[in-house]
Design brief:
Length: 258
Amino acid sequence: MTAANSTPKGKLYLVPAPLDFGCNSQTPLAEVMPMETVRAAALLTHWVCENAKSTRAYLKRVGELQPLACTVQEQKIQELPREVHKKGDHNGNFDARPLLAAALAGHDMGLVSEAGMPAIADPGSSVVRAAHDLGITVVALGGPMSLMLALASSGLNGQSFAFVGYLPQESGERAQRIRELESLALKTGQTQIFIETPYRNTVLLGALLQTLHGNTRLALSCGLTLEKSWSFSALTSGWKKSKPTPPLDLPAVFCIGR
């Protein structure tokens, strides 16, 4: 057996990031991230990420709470290809195995997205899949996950739910998709969860209020874990009556159901 073959493989850690990415203010990391996760992240020196710049900024925040194993500048950071961001990497077309060379050489690695849990509503599933295929142990660390926080805050069915990603941008296609999801939710009781980029949140909320039936429950959570965190859940008719003013410039999660 060669020395290379006898080298124990490193592990792949799925490292959550705070939900304030792209926001004007940041929540203190110690308030939203378990210290065990911070300590685990501080020990890592090899990373796969969406964006190296935002990853370095995150590691700087980690280093303010826990000494890093090496400086931010010395961290080995690899970015997922841009086409993976745009088209997703859950269909099996992208081979992420080359990104895990450091783990095969014995280094523990971290997978991080720009907000929340990597590979959940963010790219990274190809890296996790590749790790399993290569016999690399995958360890998911605890931290904030906007989809689950929004679902828990919604009052909707938390035992049967589906995350459907983004809705179409074209108005006609978007309305049709809303009606499809509403029909499924009302027929089966399964909560339907979806997201949008902040600058389209206002348009999406307007489309939901215009398209959903009055007896369909709509829940919206904005800026989860932030100082301006906001959640509201009511029948569509109740939304129209009370006319709440959510902070739609913040990241938001939408849920519909009964």
